[in-house]
Each structure stands twice: as C-alpha cells, then as structure tokens.
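This part of the workshop introduces the protein records we will be handling. An example says more than a description, so a record of this kind follows.
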Amino acid sequence: MAFGVTVDFNADVAKFDKSINKLSGDLTKFSKKTEASFSGARKAVLGFAGAFSAGQFIKGFKSVINEQEKLQRNLLRTEAVINSTGRAAGFSADQLHEQARVVAFATLESTEGILKAQQVMLTFKSITGDTFNRAIDLANDLAVTTGVSLVSSVTQVGKALQDPVKGINALSRSGVSFSEQSKK
C-alpha cells in the first residue's frame, strides 16, 4: 500500500507541476495582454490629454491675440484723441499706456478701463501734465467710492476742473463734499 500511495502521490505531483506550468503560462499571457491593454489605455489617455492641452493652448493663444488687438485699438484711439486735441495734455499714447498700467496695477480697474478714462480726460484741453495724472487718480477714487463707472467719474472730474464753479456744484450733487477752503 505504501507503494500505491507513493505512486498516486507522484502522479498528483506530476499533475500539480503540469497545472503550475499551465498557470504560469496563462499568467504570462494575461500579463502581456494586460500590459498591452494598459499601454493602449495609457496612449489613449495621453493622446486625449495632449489634444485637450493643445486645445487649451490654442484657446489661450487666441485670447492673448484678442487682448493684443484690443490694446492696439485702444492705443490707436488714444493717439487719435491726442491728435484731435492738438496734444494739449502733453502726453504720448505710450506714456498714457504706461500710466494706465501703473494705475490699473494699483487699483481694481483694468488697463483698458484706465485707457478709456484717459481718452475722455484728454477731451478736456485745459487739463494737462500733473493735473491730468492727479485727475485720473481722483476720478478712479471717486468711481470706487460712489460705485459709478470710471468714465462717468472722469467726466465729472473733467467738468469740475474745466469749470470749477459748475463742477463743484455737480460733484456736490453726486455726494462729494468740499471744505470751504477747497471751494475757494
């Protein structure tokens, strides 16, 4: 009996070895298929990410170009206003653009918004040099304080500086208060 058990045991070991070898082969095949599947999935994901990134890049690039076009139109408009007023304010379009960038950086307003406000202020020919710069800053403060647009506040400040008596009255009606010394 011991012989039969040994033989049966050897037979079982042979079957076991055969099963292990088959399982090993199956695992190798499965591993290769899985690797190929993951490789394909990885390529698909990378391809999608690349397409998404390229799409985002193109969208961002178009946005930059649109902003540049807006800036160029604004600078051309500024130059036209400067020329139409006989350069009364004493600034070039480049100088005003730089001022707009500085003011925008220091405030909540955009560079484009400041440029538009400067274009309005340029129409008041008597406002020049340092007074022009201070008027832009004060108009920005007025806009923030009263909640009106910057262009509206520039118009109010410009009128006030152009004709101080009427301007002070108009600003007073808008809620700006002046000391007696300021009124004089």
User: Anything to note?
Assistant: Residues 168 and 179 are 11 Å apart (CA to CA). Confidence is low (pLDDT under 50) at residues 1-9.
